[in-house]
Amino acid sequence: MPRIAAVAGRFYPSQGDELRAEVGRLLEAVGPVKARPAVALLAPHAAYSFSGPVAAAAYARVEVPDRVIILGPNHTGLGARVAVASDGPFLTPMGEVPLDEDLSQRIVAACPEAVRDDLAHAEEHGVEVHLPFLLARNPRIRVAAVCLRTMSCSLAEAVGEAVAAAVKACGQPVLIVASSDLNHHEPRRVAARKDRMVLERLTGLDPRGLYGAAVEHHVSMCGLVPAVAMLVAARALGARSAELAAYACSGDANGDDSSVVGYAGVLLTADRTHEIVRAFQLD
Are 130 and 92 in contact (CB under 8 A)? Predict the structure, then answer.
């Protein structure tokens, strides 16, 4: 059965024409950038009024193939620990996004913890908010959607290995998307310091370092597990460099620097010529 949009009208416009115009405006505001193939990316999942410009900065820079795997966090606590969506298509105001059954089944086959489970996805926004951007970049997309609860680093790595195995087996270009905001609800200067710690590990393609830094320094990065799994998969699939496309925080949108949420767009590619193109001057 179709998966109904859970946050349309709250995180982004509920009317198709309005949503299409909003996503188009956000992508156009990025300016003249050249899209190129990417192995994976990390992008935020807050309301578009807060994190939309950062998500657009990431999506404008990548060529989106027809097949996409989205690794998202589990904000609700419902469902399986590694939940691969089986209800589809995903309905959005801009149109339907079919499930990629082949990739979904391959992920389940490669990961003993993974099950087909829709309870985790029913009210979850971590996958949903990416779909309009993906549709705007490629209306032919189909997705494998994976919702991940809090877990050990080793299990997150196992998920990443399963994702890489699924991509290798399908024999076609696949973009892996990790859905995550960064540190939550601390003063801007504190948040920027914590965000810098995780972004250095992300752009260094260091999944264990990312997990360890987040735990040691109490970085409340909601998509830590998806980001670790994405890094493991991307490295196995040939990613050799990373680019910080954009960074912002909620204070940039609402003017409140006393308690912010951080947002970043990070691209992972096989091209060594784009090592780190933006310094970590986040504060």
Answer: no
| Residue 77 Cα to chain centre, angstroms | 18
Element (H, E) at 85: none
Cα 31 to Cα 24, 227, 264, distances in angstroms: 12, 27, 17
The answer to whether 101 touches 107, Cβ cutoff 8 Å, is no
- Which has the closest alpha carbon to 54: 252, 206, 256, 270? 252
Give first-to-last CA distance, the chain, whole Å.
46
Would the pTM of this model clear 0.90, i.e. be above it?
yes
Find where tokens 């193109």 sit. Answer: 277
Q: Is 128 in contact with 12 (CB distance < 8 Å)?
A: no
What does DSSP say about strands 142-148 and 67-73: parallel, antiparallel, or unpaired?
A: parallel
Identify the CA nearest to 89 among candidates 1, 197, 204, 221.
Answer: 1
Tell me how far apart the alpha carbons of residues 127 and 212 are, in angstroms, rounded to a whole number. Answer: 25
Domain boundaries, the chain: 16-274
pLDDT digit string (tens) for 75-100?
999 999 999 999 999 999 999 999 99
How far from 32 is each of 51, 207, 223, CA to CA, in Å?
A: 20, 31, 29
Tokens of 165: 């195995």
| Residue 237: HSE in the Cβ half-sphere, 13 Å Cα cutoff | 29
Domain 16-274 is in which class? alpha beta
